[in-house]
Structures are given as C-alpha cells and as structure tokens.
C-alpha cells in the first residue's frame, strides 16, 4: 500500500488530537504507577508519549476511522471493497464492454487499487482523493498495467491515469482512464460496489 493525498485539514487536526490524547495517557499512566508505588525494573521503560501516539495512530489508521466515518466525524471517504463493472477502450472504438473488477484496500492514510480484466492487471502507484469540487467527489490515481499471458500481442507493460467520480450513497464509481505513450489509449470505466464482499 502507498500513501494518498486528500484535500481536507482533517489529518492535521486528528494527528494533533492524537498527540494530546497520548500526552494525557502517558501522564496518567505515570501517576497511576506512582499512586500504587509500582516501580518498573530498570530494563523496562515506562510507556512514553511516543509509545501511546504510535499505538493510537495504528489503531485509528487501520480500524477506528471507519467507525468515525459512519457518524460523520471523519470526512475521508471509505472506498474499501470490491467493485464490479466494465470498461470501454478506444483500442476497439469503444464498441466492446470489457468486464473488470476493482479492488480497493484503504486505511485512513494508505491505499492500494487493483484493477483486473481477463487480459491484464493494473495496480496503483500514487493516488489522491478530492472531496471539495462542484462536479463531485473523485478518486484519481496513476497505475502500472501488466498484461496476462493470454493478452493480445500488441499489449505491453504501460502506465496510465484513472479518474473516478464516486457516489458513497449509491456505491458507484464512474470515470475515465488514459494510458501512457506505449499504448496511447483512453476509455471509460463504470463500477458498482459489491456489498457482499469485504477486502482486507
């Protein structure tokens, strides 16, 4: 998985909040040990602010942000899951619908996007989420595509860009892709989330 950017101040505010909570927990732990006159051996270090911060960040980044998203405390969209749909390419004049599966693995700060068809597999290298535009919220990412052994001979490893507008209520992703100079193709993508399948 790799990091992704998002156009909100949320990360700065939440990281500051986690730092404050870590200070409180570290101080409280120290006071509790003192009140009970518990003294740790010299070879055991008392949990520090950095320890609590790392622990809280790991929990929040992996799991807790998804629960806060449900109550709208967190704005970061949760795109985790398997999305089924199709793509059309300029390679065949947009006349053929190719079945495709999009799998998104996402934490609060990291993401991995895999798009699979019968002939190729592509995976994201960089990504960004934009939620403050009049046209709608969208996911944009750059990918590298690797053909499968049964693909057409003209297909080679190439890079490209995808831009997908998403609707969290309807569970849809729709947009376009552009491939690099090796292919010079473009096309449309359309997906609907499979709510019966969870990715981990």
In short, what is this structure?
The protein is an alpha+beta fold and 200 residues long. The protein is built from two helices and ten strands. Keywords: Membrane, Transmembrane, Transmembrane helix.
Task: Provide an overview of this structure.
- It is a single chain.
- By secondary structure, the protein is an alpha+beta fold.
- The protein has 2 domains: 6-70, no CATH class; 81-194, Lipocalin (Beta Barrel).
- It has helices spanning 10-35, 49-70; strands at 2-3, 5-6, 81-89, 98-106, 110-116, 120-130, 138-147, 158-167, 172-179, 186-194.
- The protein has an 8-stranded antiparallel β-barrel.
- Strand 4 and strand 5 (110-116) form a beta hairpin.
- Helix 1 (10-35) crosses helix 2.
- The radius of gyration is 22 Å and the shape is elongated.
How much helix, percentage-wise, in residues?
10-25%
How many helical elements? Answer: 2
Instruction: Output the CATH class name of the largest domain.
Output: Mainly Beta
Q: What is the terminal-to-terminal distance?
A: 12 Å
SSE topology sketch:
Layout: E1 2-3, E2 5-6, H1 10-35, H2 49-70, E3 81-89, E4 98-106, E5 110-116, E6 120-130, E7 138-147, E8 158-167, E9 172-179, E10 186-194
Parallel strand pairs: 2-6
Antiparallel strand pairs: 1-5, 3-4, 3-10, 4-5, 5-6, 6-7, 7-8, 8-9, 9-10
């Amino acid at each position: 998985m790799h990091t992704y950017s998002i156009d909100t101040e949320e990360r700065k505010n939440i990281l500051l909040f986690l730092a404050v909570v870590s200070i409180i927990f570290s101080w409280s732990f120290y006071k509790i040990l003192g009140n009970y006159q518990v003294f740790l051996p010299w070879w055991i270090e008392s949990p520090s602010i950095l320890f609590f911060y790392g622990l809280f960040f790991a929990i929040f980044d992996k799991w807790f942000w998804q629960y806060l998203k449900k109550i709208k405390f967190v704005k970061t969209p949760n795109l985790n899951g398997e999305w089924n749909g199709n793509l059309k390419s300029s390679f065949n004049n947009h006349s053929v619908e190719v079945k495709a599966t999009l799998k998104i693995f996402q934490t609060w700060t990291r993401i991995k996007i895999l798009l699979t068809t019968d002939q190729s597999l592509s995976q994201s290298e960089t990504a960004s989420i934009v939620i403050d535009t009049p046209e709608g919220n969208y996911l944009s990412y750059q990918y590298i595509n690797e053909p499968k052994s049964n693909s057409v001979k003209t297909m080679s490893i190439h890079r490209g860009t995808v831009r997908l507008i998403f609707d969290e209520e309807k569970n849809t992703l729709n947009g376009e892709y552009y491939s690099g100079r090796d292919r010079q193709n473009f096309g449309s993508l359309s997906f609907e989330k499979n709510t019966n399948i969870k990715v981990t």
